[in-house]
Amino acid sequence: MSVIKLFRRPKAAPEEPSDTALLALFERDPEAAWDLFIDRYSGLMLATLHHLGFDHDGVMDRFVYLCEKLSENQFRRLRSVRFAGQRGDLEPWLRTVVKHLSVSWAWSVHGRRRLFKSIRRLSGRHQRIFELYFWGGLTPSQVREQLSVEEHGEIDLLVVLDALEHIFGNLDSHQTWRLMSQLMRYRETVPIADMDTATPIVFEPRDGKADPEHALLRRERQRSIESALASLEPRQRLVLQLRYDDALPLAEVATLLGLSLSAVKMSIRQGLDRLRAVLREQDEEGSTPCPA
User: How far apart are CA 152 and CA 256, in angstroms?
Assistant: First the structure.
């Protein structure tokens, strides 16, 4: 079960607003309106894409694209709808939008992958981590794996986590909210925890040359990282998981766990420091020559 669902407080079931009221909400509280819209219509969007004949990857690529297009320019498309259909619902309009945007998706692939200016100012590695994490939907551990393959050298998980915090610091609040919201929705649709029952992720080098020895080193390093994570205090480990694996903003982590924002930041800092210390100890032990 997702950690998010375990800690998300049960809500009372208020009367659901009509789609006409939902459209009006985009003028007053667009982020709340978007959350309600996605909860109500993500299933319809996915079903429509499946009905159009796309495979799973094609559906998910287009679903993310649809979310980006519907949320761009402060949800311009949704705020421009003045009539929610004869029955007061958005379904007919949305089905048409899904079909039209699906047609334009292939022509927009390169355009939609433009990095934010603030991210383009960062190093090439930071940009690649941004792509793998936000566009590829990979967890930090999976990003580390892919980078290690691409760079033909062992990359520490801490390098990825530090880079992600640097990336977060270069995004404005709207960019962060939109990216995190879409990423969390994607991972709830394709749960990372269920990856063992799905098609496994294959990490491939960009030059296409596999390195069996390097693959062995990566597996050994992954075991070291898992051991280091297990050594953390439960709250530190949970905070890191919510922040990086579940892609939650700091404020939502604080709300879910009933902590102050400063306590969450301190827990992250202490957790990362602990990981560094444990991994350093493991490296030192591994490099100590065995007695004759």
Answer: 39
- 3-state DSSP percent of the chain in helix, strand and coil, to 5: 75, 0, 25
Nearest-angstrom CA–CA distance, 39 and 92: 17
Domain map (residue ranges) of the chain: 18-112, 117-287
Q: At what angle do helices 173-189 and 30-51 cross, to 10 degrees?
A: 40
User: What's this model's pTM, rounded to 2 decimal places?
Assistant: 0.55
DSSP state of 198: S
User: Residues 178-228: pLDDT tens digits?
Assistant: 777 667 655 554 444 333 333 333 444 444 454 566 566 667 777 777 788
Chain mean position to CA 10:
23
Residue length of the chain: 292
Instruction: Read off the tokens for 132.
Output: 């793998």
**E strands present in the chain:** none
Residues 188, 21: Cα–Cα separation, whole Å: 26
CATH of domain 117-287: 1.10.10.10
DSSP state of 156: -
Task: State the distance between the two ends of the chain, measured CA to CA, in whole angstroms.
Answer: 49
The conformational region for residue 105 under phi > 0 = left, psi -120 to 50 = alpha, else beta, is: alpha
Per CATH, is 18-112 categorized as 1.10.1740? yes
Q: What torsion, rounded to 10 degrees, do the Cα atoms 34, 268, 151, 58 define?
A: -20
Residue 243 corresponds to which tokens in the numbers above?
């922040």
